[in-house]
Amino acid sequence: MRAAVRAERLCKRFRHTLPRYDTLVGRLRGLDRGADTWALADVSFEVAAGECFGISGPNGAGKSTLLSLIAGILEPTSGRVETFGRTNTLLSLGHGLQPELSVLDNIEICGILMGLRRREALRRRDAILDFAELGARAELRLAELSTGQAGRLAVSTALHADLDIVLLDETLSVGDAAFQAKCEAAFAGLGGQGKTLLAASHDLELLRRLCRRTLRLSDGRGEVVEPAPAVLFIGNSLTCEEKGGNGDRRVLNDVPGLVSALGPGGVAVEKVVGDGKTLQDHWEDGRAVELIRSRSWDFVVLQEESTRPLADAEGMARSVRLFNDEIRKAGARPVLFMTWAQRGEQADQDLISRIYRDLGAELGAVVAAVGSAWAAAIEKRPGLDLHAADGRHAAPRGSYLASRVVAAVLFGHGGKGGAAARLGIPPGDVRFLDAVAEECSGR
User: Fold this and answer.
1) How many Å apart are CA 316 and CA 26, to the nearest integer?
2) Beta bridge partners of 10
């Protein structure tokens, strides 16, 4: 993947002159003239184009210095930093703003300082005002706005400056909660536009939501931290309960929970499910789309209602395309959960599989070949029923096999042992299902 920012063994030293040296007593006592501070010491990392990349660390760790080096405001003492695209040199909210001039004048000034031509800044000012929610205050002096309103203006200008690389220094939490949520959605959507975001902040939770990777700085040294993946599941039979004779209910199928158990430690999983719900239902309901936009996901898994590929393949395709667009805008990867044929209707599986694979090829989406794995397992062991009593949902063995295939697609490995133990699946069956899953996921 093309790089947007690359730093190699980056070092920055500041030389401080000590005040007491300039006194007669200080010179007579032979005090040192100055002291060295290494703000950065041997920091290396690479940020891909379209990535949201976080920078964290305590005060004095070198966050602002690093952004200044990337912006070209400072020169490194040694090492090098390269940027591949146009970036901003205004890193703090107050820089460039003129309190005695109007909001409109400040949009023009900030836009020019961020690399826009004057006519481009003027052409975009309505969009900037609208995003900053300052249309009614356009003619006011900037000094008459609150600090939060002025901050909204600066952030909105940066978002509309058409930069290839956006640098933000402690500006992610500007404005009230509603505006912060709007900013988060806009920042998360930069990747879908091919733009790169580097954000320095003390708010680790915010960085976790926005960024897949974070450079953690301490005493000038840096370590790139790759948090556990975040996965959103949208579907209908990803979870299933069975009612017992005494009225108790037991969970037969919890694919999201099993995938979390099979993945690396700390996998964040959320789900929007509803028995019998199609992807069109989820789209019209709106909650799934809100979740896609609400945070930084690594993967969004889409599972269609099992009969829809056969009953209305084009309707399914329309829904998947709509979700695919939202997922891409959010910077996540779509994964199509290939459904299985109902009990006794295995002849349908070839058509279901072809529909999913064709749609995956069209959209460039990964297909988790769950249905193909079910068909292979049933062919090899006809007596090993993967279906629940209703013939539609997954029994524990089917749930484990589905989760095993999805985990291999998401995490690149078969997963940890022990996830099947809580389902009560005998070890021999687990080994068989593992082998089928590896075969059908290309492992």
Assistant:
1) 80
2) 43
Spatial separation of the C-alpha atoms in residues 74 and 437, rounded to whole Å? 53
Q: Exposed, middle or buried: residue 87 (CB in 10 Å: 0-12, 13-18, 19+)?
A: buried
Looking at residue 29, what is its pLDDT? 60
57-66, 153-162, 304-313, 421-430 — which is least confidently predicted?
421-430
**Do 311 and 277 touch, CB atoms closer than 8 A?**
no
Residue 300's φ and ψ, nearest 5 degrees, are: -125, 115
The first and second tokens of residue 93, run together, are: 């909210």
Q: Which of 267, 262, 327, 334 is nearest to 295 (CA)?
A: 327
- Burial status of residue 412 (CB atoms within 10 A of its CB: 0-12, 13-18, 19 or more): exposed
**DSSP string of 31-95, one letter each residue:** --SEEEEEEEEEEEEEEETT-EEEEE-STTSSHHHHHHHHHTSS--SEEEEEE-S-B-S--STTT
Residue 122 has pLDDT above 70, yes or no: yes
Q: Which two tokens stand for residue 381?
A: 């062991």
* Phi, psi values for residue 91, rounded to 5°: -100, -30
Share of the chain above pLDDT 90, in %: 31
**Is residue 78 very low, low, confident or very high in pLDDT (cuts 50, 70, 90)?**
very high
What is the pLDDT, as a whole number, of residue 443?
45
Nearest to 196 by CA among 331, 61, 56: 331
Angle separating helix axes 177-188 and 287-294, nearest 10 degrees: 80
Report the phi/psi class of residue 442: left, alpha or beta, with left for phi > 0 and alpha for psi in -120 to 50: left
| Residue 113 pLDDT | 80
Measured from the Cβ of residue 60, the count of other Cβ atoms closer than 10 Å reads 14
CA–CA separation, 144 and 162 (whole Å): 28
pTM of the model: 0.56
Q: How confident is the model at residue 288 (pLDDT cuts 50, 70, 90)?
A: very high
Q: What is the mean pLDDT of residues 120-129?
A: 89
Is there a contact between 292 and 150 (Cβ–Cβ < 8 Å)? no
Q: Give bridge partners of residue 47 from the DSSP assignment.
A: 5
DSSP 219: T
Nearest to 10 by CA among 44, 54, 46, 60: 44
Residue with tokens 């006194």: 23
Q: Report the amino acid identity of residue 326.
A: E
pLDDT of 23 reads 60
Would you state the pLDDT for residue 351?
94
